[in-house]
Design goal:
- This protein is an alpha/beta fold.
- It has 2 domains: 180 residues, Rossmann fold (3-Layer(aba) Sandwich); 178 residues, NAD(P)-binding Rossmann-like Domain (Rossmann fold).
- It starts with a strand and ends with a helix.
- The relative contact order is 0.15.
- The chain binds nicotinamide-adenine-dinucleotide.
Length: 377
């Protein structure tokens, strides 16, 4: 029997992406896989059942029971995990640190679960990197939301009624989302600045036409990520930033430290020193926010008239392109193990081994195992 790849309707609130597109379905079939979908799986991203070219369109429970591989955007619900065959493979963003009960359910079923967030960020893995592809969507959308909410134009305008000065836009955090935000704000004509604690971002920010804001703090960590700042470094960063923010019209914050709460960078006192009408869009809202006033899923207006927008799941707001990139990432990952309609996992491949969350009744990812089982090595 060819390997059965299953895709369901996403059930998380507000989720509009899907883990399969017509293009990826074709590629999977050419590798000998059989595609089974739940009816309406791609509807919220405008992909009809017919366009996905599945061999069968099934009910949710039938699809789950027949899955050899389940592809998903959000982590499956615990009842869905229980409906899968023992030994089935799940590939999704599993948010391992968020819900220990779900990790236990994956461990105990047992499921061979791959959490795409754990994928090593090597050159070979770039085409599979869902964090990057979805962060790019978030950075783009965040700037559009800011432009819409701002009481000013972004570009400089020369009109018969006089010259309008361009908005000053600051992007905090220049990773994948931040760099996309810088590029988007530049295209809209704003005067753009960026800052990050990783010094190598200076060149990247400048190459996109942004100005690097040097706050005198560097926190280059391992594997290309930032490390947490010390208390003294944070204090220095804060003082320099408070002064700088007084002249800014729009801020988009994207700062993150993997596996931790988002760093608090903009305090309520800093917001109180900003111009009335200024706008902050906080992409990090779901992990606690980069701004002290941020509330996930809400817009908070400070007493001095600064709007703080706590965006959640921005990639879901561009479901066609976000799904296209996400589904391709998953295909590129699955392709490592798929030939002639059969699945064969090479545990000597570090991309497979390190992305694995649970397998054969064991939590493979050590930090998650400690979190869930409370056992230190
Ligand atoms: P991320 O989402 O974890 O963090 C976003 C940004 O916030 C990072 O640039 C980080 O330095 C910054 N940040 C953290 N704390 C901060 C603070 N206190 N103040 C200001 N900024 C702060 O990062 P990401 O976008 O996923 O990627 C991080 C790096 O990894 C980038 O250099 C990226 O190019 C690299 N990367 C490599 C690969 C690959 O080679 N396969 C793939 C993706 C990303």
């Amino acid at each position: 029997m060819p390997v059965a790849v299953v895709v369901l309707r996403e059930t998380a609130e507000g989720e509009r992406r899907v883990a399969l597109t017509p293009d990826v379905a074709k590629k999977l079939k050419s590798r000998g896989a059989q595609i089974l979908i739940e009816s309406g799986a791609g509807e919220s991203a405008y992909f009809s059942d017919a366009s996905l070219g599945a061999s069968e369109v099934l009910s949710r429970s039938e699809a789950l029971a027949r899955a050899d591989v389940l592809l998903a955007v959000q982590p499956p619900r615990i009842e869905d995990i229980a409906a899968l065959k023992a030994g089935a493979v799940v590939i999704a963003q599993l948010q391992p640190h968020r819900d220990p009960a779900r990790v236990q359910a994956l461990r105990d079923r047992p499921i061979t679960a791959f959490a795409m967030e754990l994928l090593p960020r090597t050159t070979r893995a770039q085409a599979m990197d869902v964090l990057s592809s979805q962060a790019a969507v978030a950075g783009y959308k965040a700037v559009l939301i800011a432009a819409e909410a701002a009481p000013k134009f972004f570009p400089m305008l020369t009109t018969a009624a006089g010259t309008i000065r361009p908005s000053k836009v600051l992007i905090v955090g220049a990773g994948v989302a931040g760099l996309q935000a810088i590029a988007t704000a530049r295209r809209l004509g704003a005067q753009v600045e960026g800052f990050d604690v990783r010094p190598e971002t200076r060149e990247q920010i400048e190459s996109l036409g942004g100005k690097f804001v040097d706050l005198g703090v560097s926190a280059a960590g391992s594997g290309g990520y930032a490390r947490e700042l010390t208390a003294e470094e944070r204090e220095r960063q804060q003082q320099a930033l408070a002064e700088h923010l007084k002249g800014v019209d729009v801020i988009v914050t994207t700062a993150a430290v993997p596996g931790r709460q988002a760093p608090r960078i903009i305090s309520a006192a800093m917001v109180a020193g900003m111009k009335p009408g200024a706008v902050i869009v906080d992409i990090a809202a779901e992990t606690g926010g980069n701004c002290e006033l941020t509330e996930a899923g809400r817009t908070v207006v400070s007493p001095n008239g600064v709007s703080v927008i706590g965006t959640v799941n921005l990639p879901a707001s561009a479901p066609i392109h976000a799904s296209e990139m996400y589904a391709r990432n998953l295909y590129n990952f699955l392709e490592l193990s798929l030939a002639d309609g059969t699945l064969s996992l090479d545990w000597d491949d570090e991309l497979i081994a390190k992305t694995c969350l649970t397998r054969e009744g064991r939590i493979q990812h050590e930090p998650t195992r400690q979190l869930v089982e409370g056992v230190t090595p």
